[in-house]
# Entry
Amino acid sequence: MAGDWIKMRADLHTHPKVVRMASALKADRLRIVGGLHSAWCLFDVHSVDGFLDGYSPETLDDMIGFPGFARAMMAVGWLEMEAENLVMPRFSEHNGQSAKRRAQDAARKKDVRKKSAPEADKLRTREEKRREDIKDQTPHSAREEKVSPPVDNFPAAQQAVITPQVTGGKFAMFDEWQPDEDLQRRASVWGIILKSPPEKTEIAEFVTYWIGEGKFFTQSQWEQKLARSVSQRRIRPATAVPANRQRDITVMPEPDKEIPDGWRG
# Structure
């Protein structure tokens, strides 16, 4: 889409990870930068949460026309693989609309700071003079008698109603959130196989986790994340008992009374 863009550092071609990738692939550093641009654009266009479902390292290599590139990205920590998906670490910090909005805000603030001190002083002086003029035009008695009525910032009617925060169709996760009843069928369209609909405990765990994250997504994006989370959780092997678990100090061990072979008493 015209006007789309992604964040890239001005000194990326000298980054140590780029140097390592160029050495591993025996390629020019500028070609590595071009490959990174293609890979990051692919994630930006086709992913909302840093996951590319069904993509393998070889698929990414074929998409950008650079054999071995995905493995080189994984070697320096710029790409990960979970099950049959490619994952971009720290996706929300550098990609997506929120990251772009933060970058634009930072650039705008930087431009403001570039203003010279005299210009800033002039702006301050004009603002102070305007306030003084308004103050002088207000009668002294009116200034003394004008008292603002107390404001109730938390009326009872507002306290009793809690609604999710909505921004441009996206909203933060909230306690009463539920996926569509047809989620199992829709998940199959997204390439995510669920043998049964999400259980209440799985939904509750998902909601509890994302409430603490404070992220904003659309209903469809939340449902995709839930479907992927449930699918991966169900195929994940049971967690083994930690090998370094501390023993119970209240239990007295039995002494070994066997005499080793060849030992002379």
User: Anything to note?
Assistant: Residues 39 and 64 are 7 Å apart (CA to CA). DSSP finds twelve helices and six strands in the chain.
